[in-house]
Amino acid sequence: MISKAAGVAAPLLAFAGSAAAQDQVLNLYSARHYSTDEALYTNFTKATGIRIARVDADDAGILARLKAEGTASPADVILLVDAARLYKGDVDGLFRPVKSKVLEDAIPAQYRAATTDQGTTWFGFSTRARVIVYDKIKVKREDVDTYEELADPKNKGKVCLRSGSHPYNLSLFGAVTEHLGEQQAEAWLKGIVANMARPPVGGDTDQIKAVGTGECQVAVSNTYYIARLLRSNAPEDRALMERVGVVFPNQQSWGTHVNIAGGAVAKNSKHPEAAVKFLEYLASPEAQNYFANGNNEWPAAKGVTVSNSALKAMSGGSFKAETIPIAAVGANTVKVQQMLDRVGFK
Question: Tens of pLDDT along 89-100?
Answer without folding.
Answer: 999 999 999 999
